[in-house]
Amino acid sequence: MKLLGAALFVLVSTTCSLRAQNHLNEWKGLVPLHSTRMDVEKKFGPSKKTYKDAFYESAYETEEESIRVEYSEGTCNENRDNKWNVPKDTVIRISVSPKGETSIPKFKRLFPQSFSRLIDPHVQSQIHYSNKDGSVGFLTKILSNGGEDILFFSIRPTEADANLRCARN
Questions:
Q1: Within a domain: 6
Q2: How many domains does the chain have?
Q3: Do the Cβ atoms of 89 and 36 come closer than 8 Å?
Q4: pLDDT tens across 17-59, in order?
Q5: Is the pTM of this model over 0.85?
Q6: Do the domain assignments include residue 1?
Q7: Domain range spanning residue 45?
Q8: Taking the C-alpha atoms of 101, 103, 108 and 109 in order, what is their torsion angle to the nearest 10 degrees?
């Protein structure tokens, strides 16, 4: 019986560990292509504004950040312009603008992974960062003291979600 309990503990621990590793783009329990509008609204309440011109997006506010979430308009069969084969109101992308200064070390505690760094060729006081598969990125501004403040970060689907991409003719 003790052996069965130990085996179950190892299985659950391994599964939780693998799940965490598979969602490097998770923020506050939300994962693009796996979370829904209902999940978002449980965390932040109803949207403050909806944008339907370019993307199917909604805006949310907290004391710490402004959040924009792009949602799916339906599966590939429902809309030829869709890029992802997920049901309507599934999260596609999350963009977050912190209110107040947010340092890179604080951000990296949320996303402990390596990022490539690219100084914006058009606005040299801004630096773009992206993880290896492009699922997490952020933009900073260079402060007068040489530090960097995060203007916004964005979370998108990972390479592991490629099977959910709509086929193009």
A1: no
A2: 1
A3: yes
A4: 333 445 678 999 999 999 999 999 999 999 988 776 656 899 9
A5: no
A6: no
A7: 25-159
A8: -70
